[in-house]
Design goal:
The chain is mainly alpha-helical and 310 residues long. 45% of the residues lie in helices and 3% in strands. Bound molecules: heme C (2 copies).
């Protein structure tokens, strides 16, 4: 038995002796094997193909060149910068600033273009609606809903329909968004108060029942015709100055139309009674200091095209 630890020349463990055939033809016909054999299957000992070896060497040369030319080795603060000075971070920064410069042009154009003409410039309008969409999601959706459908229980109006409280032209919407509604922050905020007819004793219970039924009849909802007929006079005396004789409302003071099926606070007899008894006082913040003028115009263009712009 040969002791493998004993490295004396006489005892050296030597690889199995191999015989190399001389000619290429011989080599192909009878390639040398490594001497390994598993169940009679032998492993050939062919040299690597030349092309493969060359590509391997080229990749090594390429890698060395790459280390030198490009940022490669990580350090503690940053990586080696490479002689070409390439930086993906700097590229992103320039792309962003190019992008912003292009946007800035549009923002400038938005402010200088007449509000009603924004829609006529396709490219500008598309930009305004996109920019307005993101302003809306950030600033308006918590009240008006992501899609602009509003929340009736809270008196946040639906902006998708063509029923407007304060008007639906670009100009109206810009004014509403700039100064807000019934807030204390801006003296220019849109303002109006409906009297609390029940709470303040302006109408008695019977008159309230009558006028509620009259309002129901104006909108074509189920109602008691006798009460509604009696309520017409109460309505004309107390309500028509703001809501108009036919209930069509008044943009000038934000008095909602009462002759359709669109309700800000609800069209059930209970909701209408609540509106008449206690009145309502919907508040919207103004955005004059929170948004740039261009952003206000953009969000107005967005709201305007949601469905009901005038
Ligand atoms: C804090 C809640 C709140 C936020 C935020 C808010 N709104 Fe309003 N908005 C209201 C309320 C409440 C009204 C209805 C006020 C009323 O009763 O007259 C309203 C009314 C409006 C109107 C008038 C609708 C009409 O029929 O005339 C427009 C337009 C409008 N909002 C757009 C916006 C836009 C655009 C933004 C974001 C820049 C925004 N609002 C942010 C609560 C909000
Ligand atoms: C001074 C003007 C004014 C008068 C007078 C007035 N209203 Fe109003 N009314 C308003 C305004 C403004 C609102 C909207 C309040 C808000 O947006 O918060 C409103 C809201 C309502 C609503 C809620 C509508 C909805 O869509 O949910 C009803 C109902 C209503 N009024 C009925 C009446 C009736 C009935 C009378 C008469 C007894 C009356 N109003 C008198 C200004 C007036």
């Amino acid at each position: 038995m040969v002791d493998p630890k004993d490295k004396t020349p006489e005892n050296r463990v030597s690889p199995p002796s191999r015989q190399y055939p001389e000619t290429a033809a011989q080599l192909r016909a009878d390639p040398p094997t490594t001497g390994h054999s598993w169940d009679g299957i032998e492993e050939f000992d062919n040299p690597m193909p030349r092309w493969w070896v060359w590509i391997f060497i080229l990749t090594i040369i390429w890698a060395v060149g790459y280390w030198i030319a490009m940022p490669a080795w990580p350090g503690i603060q940053s990586a080696t910068s490479g002689v070409l000075g390439y930086s993906s971070r700097a590229n992103v920064a320039t792309e962003i600033s190019e992008f912003e410069a292009r946007n800035e042009e549009f923002f400038v154009q938005l402010v200088s273009t007449d509000l009603d003409e924004i829609r006529e410039n396709d490219e500008l309008h598309r930009f305004a609606v996109n920019a307005g969409d993101s302003v809306f999601r950030a600033q308006c959706s918590q009240c008006h809903g992501t899609g602009g459908a509003g929340v009736q229980a809270s008196g946040f109006p639906n902006l998708l329909d063509d029923d407007w409280l304060w008007g639906g032209t670009m100009d109206d919407i810009v004014t509403t968004v700039t100064w807000g509604i019934r807030n204390e922050d801006y003296p220019d905020a849109r303002y109006s108060v409906m009297p609390a007819f029940g709470q303040d004793g302006l109408l008695d219970e019977t008159e309230i029942d009558q006028v509620v039924n009259h309002v129901l009849s104006l909108s074509g909802a189920d109602h008691d015709s006798d009460l509604a007929a009696a309520g017409e006079e109460v309505y004309l005396n107390n309500c028509a100055s703001c809501h108009m004789d036919d209930g069509s409302g008044d943009y000038f003071i934000g008095a909602p139309a009462l002759n359709n099926q669109v309700w800000l606070y609800g069209g059930t007899p209970e909701a209408i009674r609540h509106s008449v008894y206690y009145s309502r006082f919907g508040v919207m913040p103004g955005f004059e200091t929170r948004l740039r003028e261009a952003e206000i115009r953009a969000v107005a263009a967005y709201v305007h095209q949601l469905g009901g712009g005038q």
